[in-house]
Design a protein that fits this description.
The structure is a single chain. Helix 2 crosses helix 3. The termini are far apart. It contains six helices and 23 strands. The chain is globular, with a radius of gyration of 20 Å. The protein is an alpha+beta fold. The strands form six sheets. It has a nine-stranded mixed β-sheet. It has a five-stranded antiparallel β-sheet with strand order 1-20-21-22-23, covered by helices on one side. A three-stranded antiparallel β-sheet has the order 17-18-19, with no helix packed on it. The longest helix has 16 residues.
Length: 377
């Protein structure tokens, strides 16, 4: 990988754009409130809020997670094996498209993640399974299908992600840097979606201007060498991986477990980092915003129109994120999430019709928000 000189401890590139022309937005002062008011024997009034917090120092704290560590509040027992002593390639600092040759590594004909073991655990522990599915923007019933489409790889460089643990019946949010050698499952757009050593779901990171790091620093850790992975906007059919031990490359079909690997017989030439929008996005000369951009604007307008909901309003510790991810040709998924001051993780998930921008709630938070705000329908 060719160097992409950072200007901040974490490369000051834009956060990875979600697939399908998706847009990621951090929004500070936007509130959708969840309030539970008990009346009589159990009448419930629920109101939902998302807003930016004032604790900027805490919001910019990144947790360092060495290989073979579960981190805080793991979702499951280990369903994978990390690889020690992986030396990141020269010039690994910066933002790289997820289909870059040699971005990920692995071992020929061997999977370092047991996807079926993860599925079985989540199905047998539905509280964790539902929280895991919620982070991924899918239904609990679709976990097996979703995981079957993921591909096991290892990170070749220290990589910045948003990690999610499980505590008090909810998913938590942990901005984290995973050490090179960490085994992950990536989706068909090349985005890391699961940390195999603990089963935690992963989502794209938020870029901070002045990050601080907590946790054990491994030998060779350098904030200027942190990689940010940018999801592609097209489906990756085959990944080109590099064995960190031999330096030889091989191919792995997406969704396979190593049994269909094919050696390439050569050491790949790294692809230079990409810091601009993917070429498949509409050119700037094309008029009008994308459906994803219009949907995000719709959420912002609706929340402003409905604010304030009945008190008390529970603020967030950090600016919530709004991002989109692909569904199919007729809809995409819009997700808004954040952590409240009491430590609860709030996530709102809708399916959005591409043609009409109609919102269909996919979880309870989104349902309450839509019920209380006509603009979210």
């Amino acid at each position: 990988m060719t160097p992409n000189e950072p200007t901040a401890p974490v490369p000051a590139a834009a956060p990875p754009a979600p697939p399908g022309g998706g847009v990621t937005v951090s929004w500070k002062a936007l509130s959708i409130v969840l309030v539970v008011v008990l009346v009589g024997l159990g009448a419930v009034v629920a109101v939902v809020a998302l807003s930016g917090g004032d604790d900027e120092a805490e919001a910019e704290e990144l947790t360092l997670e060495p290989v073979s560590s579960t981190g805080d509040n793991p979702f499951s027992p280990s369903v994978g094996t990390d690889q020690s002593n992986v030396t990141p390639p020269t010039g690994s600092g910066g933002t790289f498209p997820a289909d870059s040759v040699g971005l990920y590594g692995g071992t020929l004909n061997f999977s370092q993640c047991n996807a079926q073991q993860l599925v079985t655990f989540l199905q047998q522990n539905p509280d964790k399974g539902r929280a895991w599915a919620g982070v991924q923007g899918i239904r609990f019933e679709d976990i097996a299908t979703y995981v079957s489409e993921l591909t096991p790889v290892i990170l070749r460089s220290d990589t910045y992600v948003t990690n999610h643990g499980f505590a008090n019946g909810r998913a938590t949010t942990i901005p984290a840097v995973l050490q090179a050698g960490t085994a992950v499952l990536v989706d068909k757009y090349g985005a890391p979606r699961t940390k195999c050593y603990c089963g935690n779901p992963l989502t794209p990171p938020t870029t901070y201007s002045s990050p601080r790091y907590r946790g054990p620093q491994w030998a060779g850790f350098n904030p200027g060498s942190i990689t940010i992975i940018q999801q592609t906007t097209v489906i990756i059919e085959v990944f080109t991986l590099v064995d960190p031990t031999t330096g030889e490359s091989f191919t792995r079909p997406a969704g396979s477990d190593g049994g269909s690997d094919q050696p390439s017989g050569q050491t790949p030439t790294p692809t230079p980092p990409q810091t601009q929008a993917p070429q498949t996005q509409p050119p700037e000369t094309q008029p009008g915003p994308t459906p994803e951009e219009r949907a995000i604007a719709k959420v912002q307008d609706a929340a402003s129109a409905c604010y304030p909901f009945p008190a008390p309003i529970e603020d967030s510790n950090e600016p919530p994120n709004i991002f989109t991810s692909p569904g199919d040709s007729t809809y995409f998924v819009l997700t808004a999430n954040g952590t409240t001051v009491s430590g609860n993780f709030q996530e709102f998930i809708w399916h959005v019709d591409r043609a009409t921008l109609a919102f269909t709630p996919q979880n309870n938070f989104a349902q309450v928000a839509s019920d209380h705000c006509p603009g979210l329908n």
